[in-house]
UniProtKB/TrEMBL annotation:
Keyword set, alphabetical order: Oxidoreductase
Upper lineage: Eukaryota, Fungi, Dikarya, Ascomycota, Pezizomycotina
Protein name in the entry: Chaperonin 10-like protein
Gene3D superfamilies listed in its UniProt record: Medium-chain alcohol dehydrogenases, catalytic domain, NAD(P)-binding Rossmann-like Domain
Organism superkingdom: Eukaryota
Family designation: Belongs to the zinc-containing alcohol dehydrogenase family.
Any matching Pfam family: ADH_N
SUPFAM superfamilies the record matches: GroES-like (SSF50129), NAD(P)-binding Rossmann-fold domains (SSF51735)
InterPro entries documented for this protein: ADH-like_N, ER, GroES-like_sf, NAD(P)-bd_dom_sf, Trans-enoyl_RdTase-like
């Protein structure tokens, strides 16, 4: 391990106590243990989870709670066992100091949470930015959290196959997958993953202004959830498609797979409960939000995704709450998803980052607060909020 000078402490954004807004704390800089990297963070991004943590104290067992599920920056030092870094033909150099990297990490973990100037991260949570992509760390930081979410929801919750390396002959096929919230960050990555693995019958639900982009990324057809007749339009589309279908009637659910990328009781679960039918699987991004946070209003979450007030599923619908922080339970994804699969997909141009919307502010804390305020206002639309962490790096 090479030791490069790094400060003993550094600024980190934390929630200090229940119902208190984020503050800046001087946190310890941790020297890497075996198979960990110390990374100087240039960019992070804010996701709705930060708002759920901050305004709703969602699933926080102790304070101070270190915020941030993604980082992008430069490897300062690392301790890598020689056999540890999985090299492939697309990723043939082991991780090294100076590499530009990004990753999805667990917030609440003081070593790795993303809203701090230095993170110390196990190398299986690090992706190298491929040299050939036409974007930098600012855009790359939008990728890891919800690209990992897309893999986890499609495989662990819906049971769809995403074999890696993808065999040349593999085709996901024409089973329908409906993505409600296609323009959310989760939706944008899920649609792209399905396209890469050859799932050709993706239905996306999003505001009309995003439809062209969603079709380009892989959706076969789009519907606008802001249209009060959206459910009737989907039904009409299914009737028409299935009526003209060669090879006899559909067996089982007309839409066997759903991804609810939003998890809103009134905005998504209720409408989905009207179109899911016996045999449908519905992966719901947790938490289920009964009341969204707003200025001066704490959010309210459903305690159990299977029993949400006012949402009645038909018999035979399987509802699965998505918990991406558990993605490491799949040992293959634990080892390969961030170090190998994600960089390879980016290098091939199979995945485009979300549009990065830069949140300004004079200080680290101000940028964190400004991003939370934009999330309270539900301002992001087809984009990810990103902000600078350390000032002295590009
Ligand atoms: N449990 C987990 O593992 C997990 C993982 C990732 C995310 N999540 C959760 O999933 C949710 C989404 O996360 P995100 O990062 O993707 O959020 P995001 O990108 O910030 O979501 C913003 C988008 O939501 C869309 N939207 C809002 N209400 C909608 C509705 N009723 N129907 C369709 N689209 C709607 C908007 O679409 P338009 O622009 O089209 O209006 C907007 O583009 C958050 O609550 C997050 O915490 C959970």
């Amino acid at each position: 391990m090479t030791i490069v000078a790094s400060p003993k402490t550094h600024p980190s954004i934390v929630l200090p106590a229940p119902s208190s807004p984020p503050v800046l704390l001087q946190a310890a800089t941790h020297t890497p243990n075996p198979n960990e990297a110390l990374i100087k963070v240039t960019w992070t991004c804010s996701t709705p989870l930060d708002l759920h943590r901050s305004d709703g104290n969602l699933a926080i067992s102790s304070f101070p709670f270190h915020l941030g599920t993604a980082f992008a920056g430069t490897v300062i030092s690392l301790w890598l066992r020689p056999t540890r870094w999985p090299t492939t033909s697309l990723n043939d150099q082991p991780l090294k100091e100076g590499d530009k990297v990004f990753g999805f990490v667990s917030d609440g973990n003081e070593r790795e949470a993303g809203f701090q100037e230095y993170v110390t991260v196990p190398v299986h949570k690090v992706s190298k930015l491929p040299a050939n992509v036409p974007y930098g760390l600012k855009e790359a930081v939008t990728i890891p959290t919800n690209l990992v979410t897309a893999f986890h929801a499609l495989t662990a919750d819906l049971g769809l196959r995403l074999p890696w390396p993808k065999p040349k002959s593999f085709r996901g096929g024409d089973k329908r997958v409906l993505i409600w919230g296609g323009a959310s960050s989760v939706g944008l990555y899920t649609i792209q993953v399905l396209k890469y693995w050859g799932y050709t019958n993706v239905i996306a639900v999003a505001s009309g202004k995003h439809h062209e982009e969603l079709r380009r990324l892989g959706a076969r057809v789009c519907f606008d959830y802001r249209n009060s007749r959206v459910l009737e339009e989907i039904e009409r589309y299914l009737d028409k498609e299935d009526g003209s279908r060669q090879g006899g009637p559909i067996v089982g659910a007309r839409i066997p797979y759903f991804v609810d990328c939003i998890g809103s009781r009134d905005g998504t679960l209720r409408p989905l409960s009207e179109i899911a039918e016996r045999g449908s699987k519905v992966a719901v991004m947790l938490p289920v939000i009964n009341v969204h946070a707003a200025e001066g209003r704490r959010p309210v979450f459903a305690a159990d995704e299977h029993n949400v007030e006012g949402v009645v599923w038909r018999d035979g619908v399987e509802v699965k709450g998505v918990r991406t922080l558990n993605y490491e339970e799949n040992m293959f994804f634990r080892e390969k998803l961030q170090p190998v699969i994600i960089p390879a997909l980016l290098a091939q141009g199979a995945i485009q980052p979300n549009r990065a919307r830069v949140v300004e502010g004079a200080t680290l804390l101000e940028r964190a607060h400004n991003a939370l305020q934009l999330l309270r206002e539900q301002s992001p639309s087809g984009e990810r909020l990103v902000w600078r962490v350390s000032e002295d790096e590009r």
